[in-house]
Specification:
The chain is an alpha+beta fold and 127 residues long. The chain is built from four helices and six strands; from the N terminus they run αββαββββαα. It has a four-stranded mixed beta sheet with strand order 1-4-5-2. β4 and β5 form a beta hairpin. The N and C termini lie far apart (68 Å).
Length: 127
């Protein structure tokens, strides 16, 4: 095993407190949240079983948590109430706080307003 990968090899959890594996070396039966979601599963309240660690040049030390597949539960189905709540949240993200007009795009957090309001454009009552 390469020296850089050996640094993250700790299957007993003695060094990091949790069983730790290097990138792409996780044992079968363990998946990340995204991998579980792709399979139609969710962690379902279980404790994390292990972690992946790797060194990134851009972001430094990275960690991904692993969960046991045999304890994972199916993703809860989308109900009418949840669908309405998500639609309302997205509508709020598209509504400008200054002019109160719902836009076709999500309002930028950096600008804090829709593009016309951020540019100083005034809406007229006739338009």
């Amino acid at each position: 095993m390469a020296r850089f990968r050996a640094r993250f090899w700790d299957p007993t959890g003695a060094r990091y407190g949790t069983p730790t594996y290097p990138w792409r070396a996780a044992p079968d039966g363990l998946m990340t949240r995204r991998q579980l979601r792709a399979e139609g599963l969710r962690p379902g309240g279980q404790e994390l079983a292990a972690q992946l660690m790797w060194q990134s040049r851009a972001r430094g030390l990275r960690v991904a948590y692993l969960y046991r597949v045999d304890r994972a539960r199916p993703v809860r189905p989308m109900t009418v109430g949840r669908y309405r709540a998500l639609a309302a949240a997205m509508r709020a993200r598209r509504t400008c706080p200054h002019c109160r007009i719902e836009q076709t795009y999500v309002i930028s957090v950096r600008l804090g307003a829709c593009v016309p309001c951020a540019d100083g454009f005034e809406y007229s009552a006739t338009a």
